[in-house]
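ARCHIVE CARD
SHELF: 3
SLOT: left
DATA:
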Amino acid sequence: MENIYKIILEETLAGYWDCYLQEDVVILSAAFKAMFGYQDNELENTTATWAKLIVPEDVARMDACLKEHYDSRGLKPFNIDVRYRHKNGSVLWINTTGRVIEWDNNTPVRMVGCHIDISGKKQTEQTLEISEKTFRNAFEYSPIGVVLVSVGGNFLQVNKSICELLGYTAEEMMTKTFQEITHPDDLEADLTLLQRTLDKEINSYKMEKRYLKKDGSIIWTLLHVALVRDKSEEPLYFVSQIKDITERKHNEQLLRESERRWIFASEGSGGGIWDLDLVNNTIFHSKQCLSMIGLDEHDFSNIPGQWTALVHPDDREKYVNDVKDYIDGKTGMYTNQHRVLCKDGTYKWILDRGKVIEYDKNNKPARIIGTHTDITEQKQQEQQLRETLNVVSGQNNRLLNFAYIVSHNLRTHASNFKMIMDVLADPATSEEEKKELSAHLTRVSDQLNETITNLNEVVSIQTNTDIQKSEVDLLTYFKRAIALLNNDISLYGIDIDNRIPADKALVYSPAYLESIILNLVSNAIKYRTATGQPQIIIDYFVENGKQGFTVTDNGIGIDLKKHGNDLFGMYKTFNGNRDARGMGLFITKNQIEAMGGKIEVDSEPGRGTTFKVYLT
């Protein structure tokens, strides 16, 4: 039977021993010796062998446990965990169990037992002990509140921070449930998230909630809750971390109140507010901001880019670059003027300004608040002022030009008259010379009369405040001009491509329109090409609600770099034509501007000319 027990012990990897106490003989099994890295023949079967394997610091504990076993005549078991030295120098934890099986009166004679290696178990226990100690320290000394809560809501364990936060002692907290100290307005949301966690829809949850302190006051907290389950996935308890955010919420409330006052003040003055969150990539546009372009709040989401898409294409690049430069710190302030497409299809001018009010941890802009102000009326007034200044400037230039012409031409004619009269009055002048001078006098008189007629025509155009207008058909007037010039058109083989559509009527001065068309078409004929087929193209256009026409030829062209400033001047000619008087374009421009229009020219020498006339 004894051998059976030994076999069992060997199979369980336990090292057994049999000690004859009075003879100081110990029989150590091969498994016992192998446990410490020795062969059977490497260790003597004596109590000294046993003693030298035990770590010296544990010998006293071993001896005390053995003595208690002896003194109690075996009633107190000999069972102790002690450390042994392995042959390789490492330390093993060994569970030593034994019993005296033979006595001589009160003297132990024979004792048997076994050794079991429990190093792995001990390491696990030590690791667990360290973890538990670490958890206890982290739990107890955490700067934020930490609690363990039962599935039913009772507090199982609380730390010092949560007690200080809520004003309760640990004992008082243990008598309460979290439901009792949660603000009523936040309880439903908390319970809903807790149930979703129990139902395994979520693993944990986070929320901002209010707690009721012992003194009745309210604090705001950031709550993070996680559920701990057992191996069978049954809920054990909740671990909750609770951080005081009362000051932050107070500051947020102050900021919201400040923003509300700012928005009220800004929108009260007709402006709109926008708020760009660069961290979350969202943007808010106030109701006034959207209503100024005819939109409602539901027409816009909080995704950036919608406003940019409405910015006029000609303004968009500068608008985007101005925003980017400000965010990148290239400019000290953000301001931009741009046109925005309204719901009705029109454009409004917006003055856009913004300022960074929050920065992230890297000192990069995190939030920008700005304003939109409708400056359409201001822009229209600026445009009207520019147009008025242009008109005044043009009139002033024409007045100076006119004064120069009057002064120069009339003085020239007067000088000619005086010179001829002086010669006629001279007694030495012969009759034949007088006859010749009389002929000169006639020519000078005719030239003076022509000059006065031209000047009178210009004055008439510029001073006529009651220009007779009526509905005219543009195509009809071009057909009439072509018919009047048909002889020259046929003579020079000019190809006329008249693209004016039928029924293009407008209210205009018939006399002016006839003169304008006749002058431009006759100029195109006069300065035709001499190297190919002369061609004149007449076309119609509408730009920004204004009607007009173009007259394009492939003639000799004009050097605008050289003659551009004098092109529409009185008595200015450029191409050496003996018939040119320099009055046609001058009068044409005056007639067009007198009707509120304008004329533009595009030309290159040898490549023809295009006159573009805005009639209205």
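SLOT: right
DATA:
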Amino acid sequence: MCPPFSDPDQRLFVRNASLSDLSGIIALSRRVYEGTGMYGYSKGPLTGQINTFPDGQFVAMLGDTVVGYCATFRISGEIALGPHDWTSITGNGYASRHDSEGDWLYGMEVCVDPECRGYRIGERLYNERKQLCQRLGLQGVVFAGRLPTLRKRLKKYDSVEAYIEAIKSKEQSDPVLSFQLHNGFDVHGVIPHYLDSDHDSLGYGVHLVWRNPKVPQAGPEEKAKRYGKRMPDTVRVGTVQYQQRPVASFDEFSDIVRYFVDVVSTYKGDFVVFPELFTLQLLSIERREGSAADAFAAVTHYAGRFRDLMRDLALRYNINIIAGSTPVREEDGTVHNTAFVCLRDGQVFTQPKIHPTPNEAYWWNVRGGNRVSAIETDCGPIGVLICYDAEFPELTRHLVDQGVQIVFVPFCTDERQSYLRVRYCCQARAVENQVYVVLSGNVGNLPNVPNMEIQYGQSCILTPCDFPFARDGIAADTEPNVETVAFADLRPEVLITARNSGTVKNLQDRRHDLYSVNWRGE
């Protein structure tokens, strides 16, 4: 018995994976693939897999330790049973090709701790796949398996196909393919260049299928009905177009913020959104001499009180708060433009601005962050991009690959041209990612506060441009430069419908064989 099983109080069980398992899955995958030429998973792809199709991801647990991981997604048979490679069919590992109406379950990953092999953990995970397939009434399970003995043995055979036939007839054995055949999978074919980094398999994948015995098999011409669904659930969002004005104290500032949180909560909002750097209003409490950078950095002293205020309001008013952004001094002494996201259950998340504008970097010495992460809320995963970040399409794509369906964009612009750069880019992000985008901006003037003297803003809530959405791709809009709140009810399930059966299907139609976003930050 291997050491991990020596404790009689430890229980081995399989359950659905959750985001709290990420560190354990990352460590497991790195142990499994060490020395193979392949790499273990990072946080982003795993977040995308779990958020995109939570029912299809499983972990095998030995007590509190992750000792096995299984990842799947739904896809059409036309794609899954045809030629493909691992990168293109899995969306670079994010499971972003998931089709909620797909008739096959695609297995993109099974890995088991090397120290725990021999206890049929892989078999347990394969059984979970089959049971899920049957619960959903799908045609079957399909994937491309490894052939780790191929590199050493291929010279003895005329072709890869001949070697596979030898394994099928049990003249040879392979620890992966023999196991899969034993578990009821049939060889559908061989896929060259399926995963070129798999050196032992020489890049080949063995195309395998298991057909669900509980459903009639669809013929090649049959297509499932993909329309006529009703999606009733909504997420109510209120975006605050905030008037900059001098304040005499932090308490006065707090009263203004509390008023808007109360308003949106009274209207039964799920989210209230504030603008970028609206906390610079606090500089009006006292006139500060010195440089613009010194004045900006002075607001960092309020960061802790501001975070605590927003967390308290989120709890008191039972609402999720996208708290705009504020200057925050990091442990290394640098200043970041950071958004706080305060959830109504008391959790607080941060999202730094990745791209400070030239103005921010020059006048305020703002540094850029290095992570863009999905944030789990009771309304599904969301993302935050601060103003200029929305003008970089890779960031939104990285968030959407992690399962995000609503992107919040707090912004701060001084005149119309600056504002329209943000607005037009956000509309593009909504279209190309089939995602909702919510903008919240400042209006008014703030004399004697460097780089905040004037504001131009027109807050809005944007949608993709297709029949299920508002005609102009605008769910809500405001009058420019007037303090107000705009509301919209957003239907995340309509996004799923549009992504799967819309007039255009931007996410599904991506050429994963040609391009992808490879995130190198945290």
